[in-house]
Design a protein that fits this description.
This protein has about 280 residues and is α/β, with parallel strands linked by helices. It has a single domain, classed as Rossmann fold (3-Layer(aba) Sandwich). The chain has 7 helices and 8 strands, in the order βββαβαβαβααβαβα. The chain has an 8-stranded mixed beta sheet with strand order 1-2-4-3-5-6-7-8, sandwiched between helices. α2 crosses α3. The longest helix has 17 residues. The radius of gyration is 17 Å and the shape is globular. It starts with a strand and ends with a helix. Pfam families: Abhydrolase_3. One of its GO terms (molecular function) is hydrolase activity. This is Alpha/beta hydrolase. It comes from Nocardia speluncae.
């Protein structure tokens, strides 16, 4: 096993220090574009020690690819039931995205090459938004984008027949509802007006000239409606996209490193990276 060296440090961000963690392979693959990986957690939780961050990064780095994770700003938790309450916070959009972009631009500058940007759930939203921001404001298009069980639209799209068939009966228990997704996203941005901003939620936005995208979905997850819709939008925009549904899984399977779903998800990521994200 090519066990990576793990180093924690901070970067100077727009609002102060941004903690990052570097995963440096003992035997690096010099042809492999580095990966910036972003954890999920509904924009309210998670961090560098979270399995969805650390376990994923460790496994990818063991393949020889440099990986960086980022501890982006988190917003306060939100109510699922009752009247929505937005607690005061300076961490709402664009703070989390700014932290991700600080980590991304530093990684590109340090390596002198393109990077892959990817994440899970809310982190996938930040990855996609970050890729669009890089495309539009820095002319630095990533080498690829990885989106695992992503939330990419301000409102949960209607469930397509393929998703509806997978989440019937008891498999629907514990899945996301449109109400929950709207509350989560409103809590992230802080105002209803920003829900329609394609720089915040890229679903339905202008996606042309993005690099190849890998979308991974959990089989029993209503959020797959967002990935499914986004995959169609990418194809319509002429962006190469691969969409895989990991059988037998629920949302967050990359946060469960001992599960078959985690292993299947990592295998899919490594296979796609090997075919797509190499500058050698």
């Amino acid at each position: 096993m090519n066990d990576p060296q793990v180093r924690d440090r901070t970067l100077d961000g727009l609002r102060g220090a941004v903690p990052i963690r570097e995963y440096l392979p003992a035997d690096p693959d010099t042809a492999a574009d580095p990966l910036l990986w972003i954890h999920g957690g509904a924009f309210v939780s998670g961090g560098l020690d979270q399995h969805e961050s650390h376990a994923v990064a460790s496994r990818v780095a063991a393949s020889g690819r440099r990986v960086r994770t980022v501890d982006y700003a988190l917003v306060p938790r939100f109510r699922i039931w009752g009247p929505p309450v937005l607690r005061p916070s300076s961490n709402r959009y664009p703070a989390p995205l700014d932290d991700v972009l600080t980590a991304a631009t530093d990684l590109m500058a340090g390596g002198g090459r393109r990077i892959v940007i990817g994440g899970a759930s809310a982190g996938a939203c930040l990855a996609a938004s970050g890729a669009l921001r890089l495309r539009d404001r820095s002319a630095e298009v990533p080498a690829g984008i990885i989106l695992a069980y992503a939330t990419l639209h301000a409102e949960l799209p209607s469930l397509p027949d393929s998703v509806r068939a997978r989440v019937r009966g008891r498999r629907r228990i514990g899945t996301y509802t449109p109400r929950m997704i709207r509350r989560m996203n409103l809590n992230y941005v802080g105002s209803p007006q920003l829900l329609a901003d394609p720089e915040v939620f890229p679903g339905g936005g202008k996606l042309a000239a993005l690099p190849p995208v890998l979308l991974l979905d959990a089989a029993y997850d209503t959020l797959s409606a967002s990935s499914t819709a986004f995959a169609g939008e990418l194809t319509e925009a002429g962006v190469p996209a691969e969409h895989h549904v990991v059988s037998g899984t629920r949302h967050g399977f990359l946060d469960r490193p001992d599960s078959p779903g985690f292993r299947a998800g990592i295998d899919a990521i490594l296979d796609w990276l090997g075919r797509t994200a190499r500058n050698g």
